[in-house]
Each structure stands twice: as structure tokens, then as C-alpha cells.
Amino acid sequence: MSYEDPWYDALASGWGESAESGPGPAAVPLARAADEAADVDPGEVYLEVQRSAAFQEVRSRYRRFVVPGTVAFLVWYVAYVVAATSAPGLMARPVAGAVNVAMVAGLGQFLTTFLLTWAYARHARLRRDRAALELRWDTQELTRGIGGGAR
Amino acid sequence: MTGQHQTLALMLFSAFVAVTLGITTWVGRHRHGSAEEFYAGGRLFSPMENGFAIAGDYMSAASFLGVTGLIALFGYDGLLYVVGFLVAWLLVLFLVAELVRNCGRFTLADVVAARMRERPVRIAVGTSSVTVSVLYLVAQMVGAGSLVALLLGRTSQAAQAWTVIAVGALMVIYVSFGGMRATTWIQIVKAVLLLAGTVALTVLVLVRFHGDVDRLLSTAAERSGHGTAFLAPGLKYGGSWTARLDFISLGLALVLGTAGLPHILSRFYTVPTARAARRSVIWSVGLIGGFYLMTIVLGFGAAAIVGPDAVRGSNAAGNTAVPLLALDLGGGADSTGGTVLFAVVAAVAFATILAVVAGITLASSASVAHDLYASLRRRAAPRGEVTVARLAAVGIGVVAIALGLLARDLNVAFLVGLAFAVAASANLPALLYSLFWRGFTTRGAVWAVYGGLVPALVLVVLSPVVSGSPDSLFPGLDFQYFPLQNPGIVSVPLGFLAGWLGTVTSPEIPDEAKHAETEVRSLTGAGAV
């Protein structure tokens, strides 16, 4: 099945995902109980959505991945650069044949970049996308009646 | 180089120029002149197309020719330099791409100004974006002049000057007539050509060594005259502690700067959703990573097959390592294969430069028209704004040509590193604070931008690249007070510090609702255009 709608392009496609589709983004509570949208201003809507359990869940899932991820790759990169510039003796130690520690570390940087990219894509697709899309529709539904102020 | 090489290379150049002008005309036929179309190409590119275009924007001639030359001459230190260019994409992917796509419309300033008093923030971010673009642009223009002269063997001043003028004129035509749509297709064509050329050469190098990478490395080490030291860090960035600290500063600027480059950020607006922006980055990480892995093979291949002495003899900075390697792989200087491969490499390098300068020109004309012009002069209709952007592209082209001609004989290799450093110290703090810090205020945003921009530029003026050493821009003068060539290690923390200081000293109470709006929009895409 293929959707013309561009919003639907990626939920079940892409690399790294085959038959198994992970734990899924279930159990995200709804953004709001009732819609009394007609007479609120857009700022109120965004505050309300921001306070909702559903949004907090999406935000914390995002942050729980990117904060440690960013710290990890920055530390690993800085450690690599500092080691290469200040401990060339260590880096020159041979591993196998012409390959030395420096070569392994450099290719390791490439490898970890690819791995983290893959992990982020998978995490976002399985843990965040569906909930974010629902929140998007809910929020737009709520802001619609308000004279397009937020659009 | 002989006449045969030149003729074939010129024919391929002309073919590429004809194709790109064809694209521009074809796109121009369907244009409506809306801002959406000019700045964002109608937002309907697929993630794969945009991924190739991002890779095309990012893989400059400096990487293709400069980095391979660096590896051919200094071995491992060239690889060390390359790693930062790739790792930087994790920052873009994790913290920037999706959120920027969700919150902004056309430029970086859209995202930062959304929560603030628009005018001062737009002017600040617009100024720093244009600064970054112009620095990057001049580096590419000067490179284009010397590169084409080098590849065609015409080192006369007039040939170089005309190359710079021709490159400038072409980029202005692409941008002002074709806008984002033509620029994107040119990037895609260029990325495919560059990757195809790189793959072909890499395969030929590996075939020459029967797929034995270990032998490739040991042959390279042997021929370099440095032995195993060639495969370990230290030949270029070792030495004094200043040189080492300088490299750490450069590495920091590369990793943090990519996420603040205006021409990269504007690419995320060409796809319909944040998810598509994410998938574009994944494509580009794959393409860029693969490309840099291949340049490593080509660099060591050039050291092993051509030899560092021959490379250095042709061009002291090593920029001709890949063309010389192509000549040898094709069967030598007098063979048909050598001629063809050499011409292909020259044409690919030329295509690379043209596409990169077009991308930067577009981004800076967007900053001028959408941020600076629109805030300095209140009532600008969207239609008028696009006209301003087209004119801005012409103006930027003229400035770039003039600076390119002025700087023709200067050593401008530091400019790329400087552009990254300014992006990391001025754009990145403002962007990250406004996306993630609830209490961030207008004064904080303005201070973050100027607090990173001004120190970065001042430190460079006081650095050895401008005065006080034989390689400086002004070797005769000496007002050098800052020892490092790249200011990143000082100016990036200063940018973040200034943003924090501006925020805590500001009397303005941050608007809760505006912050809620930014946060909800950035993570869900609600209200995204």
C-alpha cells in the first residue's frame, strides 16, 4: 500500500527494520480530554499541549536518546583528537600488519558515526514518530478554530 | 599538462556547464516567483534527492583535492582532519535537522527569532550567516581560480582571473534564475558525478594492490620516506604545543560548525516533513561517510603510486595528488586512458566548485533578503522579497568575485576553518539555546551571536594567518597577539558564555507560551509549513 500523503512516507520503511518492528509507541495517553477549542488563544493551546502527558512522554523519549548520545560522541571525538595530538606514541603502536592504534581509532570514528546514525533513526521511527504525529494532528485541531493565529 | 588533456577537460567542463544551464532554464520555465519556491524549491524533494544534494553541498573541492593531497603528503594527519567533517553530522542529525525543519521557514534566523523580538535577532543572525557564507565563498572562489589554472596548466594571471569571474557569473545565473530548485538539481548531478569518479578511482587503486589494503598502506609508508611514522599522527599537526592546540581548535570548529552552516540548514526546508529531513541526513551521512573513506584510500594510493615527492613537485599543498593519481592509474601521461581519467577528474573538480558556490550564494542571498532586508525595511511583500533575493545573489556574486580576485595570490586555506569556527561560535549557541533553553531571551540571542562572531573575527585578525609569519596575508607587518590559526577553542565557549550572560542580565521575562510553542512545534511538527 502506498500513500500519496507525504506525512505517511516513512513509518514502515527504511533500513534496519524488517519483520520485527520493535516494542512500538503504544501506551501514549491522549493529549487532551475534550475539545473546547473555540475560545482559547494559540499560546494557551501550546501550553496545554506542552503540559500534556503525551507530549512530556515524547520529549523525554527524545531527550533520553539525544543527550547521552551527543555527550558520548563528543567525548569520544575529543578524546580521539586529543590522543592523536598529544599521545602519538600510543597511537603509533602496531595492531596487525601496517594497521596501528591510530588507524583503528580513526576507522572506529567512522563506524560509531554510522552506528549512532542507525540507532537514532531506529529509535525515532519506533519510539517517537507515531506519538509525535498524533500530537501534531491534535494540536492543529485545537489551533484551527483560532483564526489561524498559530499557523 | 599536454594540449590533449586540456581539450578533453575543456569539453567535459563545457558539457557540465551546458547541462546545469539546461537545468536552470528548465526549472525557470515553471517558476511562479513565490518565496516558497525560490528559497525552498517548493519543499517537495524526496529524502534521497535531498540527501544527495546535502552531500553535494558539503563535499567541496577542498575535500576531494585538498584532503587527498594532505593524506598523500602527511599520511595519517590527513585522515585525522577528515574525521571531524563526518562526526559533525551526528550533531546535525540529533539536535538540529528535524527541529529546524519543524520550526523554521527559510533561514536559520526564522528559528531563533520565533521566540524573540524579531528585528534585533534577525539582524544579528542574518549578519553572522552572511559572514559565514562570504568567508566560505571566497575560499572556494580563490580555490577555483588556482585549481582550474593548475589542472589546465595555464598559470597566467589572466586565466585565473577569468576563471574566478566565470565561476562567479555562473553561480549568479543558477541562483537568481533557478532558485533553490535549480541549485538542488545541480547539487544532485554534481554529487553523483563526484561519487562516481571517486568510486572508479578507488576501485582502480584497490585493483592495483589486488585488494590488499595492508600492502597499500605499507607501500605508501615506504615511499613517503617517513616509514611507519607516515601511518601515525604527528607529521603535520605534531610538533609544538601551539600546533597541537591549533588542531584541537580546528577539530572542535569542524564538529560544532557544520550544524551552524546556513547553506546546510536551508537544505532541510526543501523536504516536506521533519521525518523527511531526518532521512535526508541519514542518506547524506552514508554518502559523505563513504566518500571520505574513499578519499582516504585515494590519498594513501597517491602516496603509494605517485609518491609524495612527485605530488609536492607539482603543487606544494598537494592539491594535484588526485589528478596525478588518475593519470597514472589510466596508464600514464601519454596513454588514452590517462588522458581520459585526468580530464574526468578535472571536470569533476570543476563541477564540485560550481555546485558548492551556488549553494552558498543561495543561502546568503536568502539571509540578505529574508532576514536583513525584511527587518531593516518593514513593509516588504513576499513577491518583492524574492526579487530582492535575486538581486542579492547578484550583489554577493560581485562581492565574491572582487574578493576572489583580490585574494588571488594569498594563502586563504585558513578561510574554510574560519567559516566553520564562526558558524560554531555565533550560529550554534543561538540556535541550541533557542531550541532547548526555556529562559532564553532576546538579549541572550543577540549577545550569543555577536559574542561569538566578534571574538572569532578579532582573534583571526590577531593570529599568525594575518600577520607576523612568512605565510601570513601580510608577512611584512606584525600585530600578532593570538598564537592559534583557528579561533574555535576560544570563540565557541565565548559565544555560549555571552548567550548565557545576556540572558541572565536581561530584564525581559521569557514568554512561557512562546517557549511552549517552540517546543511543541519542534518536536511534533504542529504548524510547520
UniProtKB/TrEMBL annotation, chain A:
Which UniProt keywords are present, listed alphabetically?
Answer: Membrane, Transmembrane, Transmembrane helix
Q: What's the superkingdom here?
A: Bacteria
InterPro entries named among the record's database cross-references: DUF485
UniProt KW Transmembrane helix keyword: yes
Keyword Transmembrane appears in the UniProt entry:
yes
Residues spanning the membrane: 65-83, 95-121
PANTHER family (UniProt xref): INTEGRAL MEMBRANE PROTEIN-RELATED, MEMBRANE PROTEIN
Q: What is this protein called?
A: DUF485 domain-containing protein
- Per the UniProt entry, what species is this protein from, by scientific name? Streptomyces mangrovisoli
Species lineage, top-down?
Bacteria, Bacillati, Actinomycetota, Actinomycetes, Kitasatosporales
UniProtKB/TrEMBL annotation, chain B:
- What's one GO-annotated cellular component? plasma membrane
Q: Sorted alphabetically, which CDD domains does this protein's record hold?
A: SLC5sbd_u4
Predominant cellular place of this UniProt entry's protein: membrane
- Where are its TM segments located? 6-27, 79-100, 121-139, 159-177, 189-209, 247-269, 281-306, 340-366, 387-406, 412-433, 445-466, 486-504
The record's listing under Pfam families reads:
SSF (PF00474)
Q: How does it sit in the membrane?
A: Multi-pass membrane protein
Q: Does the keyword Ribosomal protein apply?
A: no
Q: Extract the InterPro entries matched here.
A: Na/Glc_symporter_sf, Na/solute_symporter, Sodium:Solute_Symporter
The UniProt keywords, alphabetically, are: Cell membrane, Membrane, Symport, Transmembrane, Transmembrane helix, Transport
GO BP annotations listed: plasma membrane acetate transport
Where, per UniProt, does this protein localize?
Cell membrane
Q: GO MF annotations for this entry?
A: acetate transmembrane transporter activity; symporter activity
Q: Which residues form a coiled coil?
A: none
Which family does this protein fall into? Belongs to the sodium:solute symporter (SSF) (TC 2.A.21) family.
UniProt protein name: Cation acetate symporter
